[in-house]
Amino acid sequence: MTAAKVYFGSIQHGVATRFASFAAKVDKVVDQLDMSTIEKGDKVAVKMHLGFLDGYQTVPVFFVRRIVKAVKGFSKNVFITDNPTAVYNAADRGYTQETCGCPIIPVAGIKDGYTVERRVDYRNVETLDMAGVLNDADVLIDLSHIKGHNSCGFGGAIKNIALGGFSAPTRWNKIHGVEQSIPYWDPEKCSPEHAKKLELACPYKHLKYDAENHKLTRMFSMCRNCEECLEADKDVGCLELKQGNFSAFQELMAIAAKQVLDTFDESKRFFISFLLQITALCDCWGVGFPPLVNDIGVLASRDIVAVEMAALDLIKDEGLIEKNVPRYYRHANLDPKADLHPFQRLNGKYKNPYLTVEFAERFGLGSKEYEIVEVLSPEETMNVEPPKGVAEREPSFF
Ligand code: SF4
What separation in Å is there between the alpha carbon of 333 and the centre of ligand 1? Predict the structure, then answer.
């Protein structure tokens, strides 16, 4: 398989003028992506996360507007789409039709019920309800804010359509529910007293014991893999912590992403990922977080697997900003030499973000082999004579 091209604009610049600025690089990577396969009249869905409540670390409207403008060069029928809640209060975070330059539409209708059933038959999940608006669109611009994620370590282009491309009941009950499909606790071996002890052993309160039904449940999405429950269980051996439960979520994400991508012609899928304000948790939390990785830049590709792989590798090279790791990450592994991706060091060793990418490649979504094509690099631009600009030396508009 040939390496997929991933265009990269670094946040680092070589000269402090507009032609080499980050905004210029965003324009350039979008240009390199070559959207000429979009036909006049195509309905173009820009799927992004518009954030929630007080969460402001999404793709800045400044760049969204530029990307929408670029797409309009090929088809005027562009719209932004996301889940209904995020759409209804998007204006609170600066996203409006006026600022973005196109309408903003709920991805699964005004009551989250405009969906198309997709049969997947994966573990305890028979069907997924895919967003009807994505099913109707001709072109997909998968515009992602890159960050960590509590369930699978990483949120990027795959998660943006795998969770964001489906109704809330599918997202929360089915995709998040698949982690429970592999047994991890033996009720026969565990007395009610021991189950209560295990519940209390979890420092994050992510083990819940239902005494009435004698049922112990681990909240896998929030489990930090600290193994304190296993330590409390060592004399009984009724509880397990296995890679499979965590990987099931990642595999179903890749399956869900494939369902969305399969509705688009290969020539009409574009992936743009912003590696800015990289937080440990995702945009659904509705709060601002300290950035855990330095800003890196922007990536664009026609290959979803390649763009994810490049984002993960760049973050791995960059490492964590240790002083920004919140205190509630009591078991974060702060050893930069540990053989774990920075997001695993934060969210848990079983939350290996590369696994999602591997599943996606196995399902034929793209190639892990990629070639970075950097645009307007600092080295390239630092000795270039900048084009003559306009200076505002007196009150004026330009
Ligand atoms: S591994 Fe740690 S965080 Fe996870 S359930 Fe056990 S005690 Fe809780």
Answer: 15
Among protein residues, the one with the nearest Cα to ligand 1's atom 4 is 223
Supply the angle between the helices 61-72 and 22-33 in degrees, to the nearest 10.
30
Nearest CA to ligand 1 atom 7: 202
How far apart are alpha carbons 30 and 272 in whole angstroms? 8
Closest CA to 99 of 63, 65, 55: 65
pLDDT single digits (tens) 287-318: 889 999 999 999 999 999 999 999 999 999 99
Name the CATH topology of 183-241. Alpha-Beta Plaits (3.30.70)
pTM value is: 0.96
Distance CA 141, CA 387 (A): 31
**42 and 3 Cβ atoms separated by less than 8 Å:** no
Tokens representing 2?
A: 């040939």
CATH domain 4-178+253-381 topology: Rossmann fold (3.40.50)
Which tens digit of pLDDT belongs to each residue from 122-177? 999 999 999 999 999 999 999 999 999 988 889 999 999 999 999 999 999 999 99
At 398, which amino acid appears? Answer: F
Structural domain spans, the chain: 4-178+253-381, 183-241
Number of other residues whose CB lies within 10 A of the CB of residue 346: 24
